[in-house]
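Here's what a typical entry looks like (Haloacid dehalogenase type II):
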Amino acid sequence: MKAFCFDVFGTVVDWRTGVAREASEFFSRHQLAGIDPYDFADAWRNLYQPAMEACRSGKRPFTRLDILHRENLEIVLRKYDVNPDKLDDDALAQLNSAWHRLDPWPDVVTGLTQLKRNHIIAPASNGNIALMVNMAKRAGIPWDAILGAEVTQAYKPSPPAYTRMVEILGFEPQEVCMVAAHNNDLHAARQCGLATAFVARKSEHGVHQTTDLEPSEDWDFVVRDFNELADRVLSSN
């Protein structure tokens, strides 16, 4: 194994808490009462896959995630009877960039730092380059490279999202391990010949989460967190 590539939203960072935190500040600043920030974060995230599917299916050209997030933000605001046209554009841009300021799970930086000693580590995210760079700089995430949809021009789980990433790294598929908290992401990576590692994030969707609580297949690694992944990988070298 020469490289480990990581899903980011949910696997590396706690998107729900971070988006809810910034939404709460936005609502307070604009005196928008009665909107639960966690419900708002969930509603915004629920538009994530449909927006990317339009690109995957060819209904629209590849469009970077910051733009899709902004379009979805305006849709969600209207669902909560908030007219985005009556809000300051800079304030909307600041809320949209909440995805750039998400906090990593507690084990992430220490685990990645260990893994980085002998392996290449990079995001394999649907997030665009600016988003990934800003997130990493703020949180101290020690990536060796920034990979993902804007580099491969493909959104997971489309096969090119994995195969082009492997090609860019200059490795064979079996030399790259996809790490994710989502079984469908790992299934798609495995279909492309990559190794796989499952890390459960049982509170990604809150305390009532029902999905991805356990591995659905016999992934190459099944671990509690990034520290355990690093320990197992380094001990096998």
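Strands lie at 3-6, 120-125, 147-148, 176-180, 195-199, 221-223.

More examples are in the samples folder.
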